[in-house]
Amino acid sequence: MQRLADFLDGVSRVTASIVRWLALLMVLVQFAIVVGRYVFGVNSIAAQESVLYMHATLFMLGAGYTLLVDKHVRVDVFYAKASPNGRRRIDIFGHILLLIPSMLVLLYWSWPSVRNSWKILEGPISVGGIEAVFLLKTLIPAFCILLVLQSLSLLIRLFLTRPDAAKADA
């Protein structure tokens, strides 16, 4: 099970190591757009949409890694003051009853839209934009799958390693 968790973590790490470069590229493209518009009077809808595509890709595909390194948004009302065993229980509850089911529901309900978008190769958001909305919509199921995989990895680790304090609380 440890090897499976390591493999799933590796998926998140590899994905993050690829998409992190989009942050730099996004800054450079946005800088070029601003210089082009205000210095040379040139504007490109496709270039502007490319920033939107890169931003969406960075955040949607980087979500699994964010969960892996524990930098996701957490509501610390109960978690901050909980014992290690209490935190473990909150994490298990959150993964099994909140995160995984919500990602599966999102995947289920978004799939028809993604499928239809691919069927017609859905065109640009704006006239003159990037003719690949179907790729943008594909980020939704990719996001769901990457988060579910990372959640499974974290669940495996939660069940494999039980804190010493948990034994004392039991």
If you average the pLDDT, what whole number results?
Answer: 93
When the domains are counted, the total is: 1
User: What is the structural class?
Assistant: mainly alpha
- Quick one: how many beta strands? 0
Bulk shape:
elongated
**Oligomeric state of this protein:** single chain
Put simply, the count of helices is: 8
Rg, rounded, reads: 20 Å
Uncertain ranges: none
Compact summary:
The complex comprises the extracytoplasmic solute receptor protein and the two transmembrane proteins. This protein is mostly helical.
Give short descriptive properties of this protein.
single chain, 170 residues, mainly alpha, 0% strand, elongated
Question: What can you tell me about this protein's structure?
Answer:
It is a multi-pass membrane protein. The complex comprises the extracytoplasmic solute receptor protein and the two transmembrane proteins. Belongs to the TRAP transporter small permease family. Part of the tripartite ATP-independent periplasmic (TRAP) transport system. The protein has one domain. Helix content is about 80%, strand content about 0%. The protein has about 170 residues and is mainly alpha-helical. The chain starts with a helix and ends with a helix. The protein is elongated, with a radius of gyration of 20 Å. Helix 1 packs antiparallel against helix 7 (about 135-160) and helix 3 (about 45-60) runs parallel beside helix 7 (about 135-160).
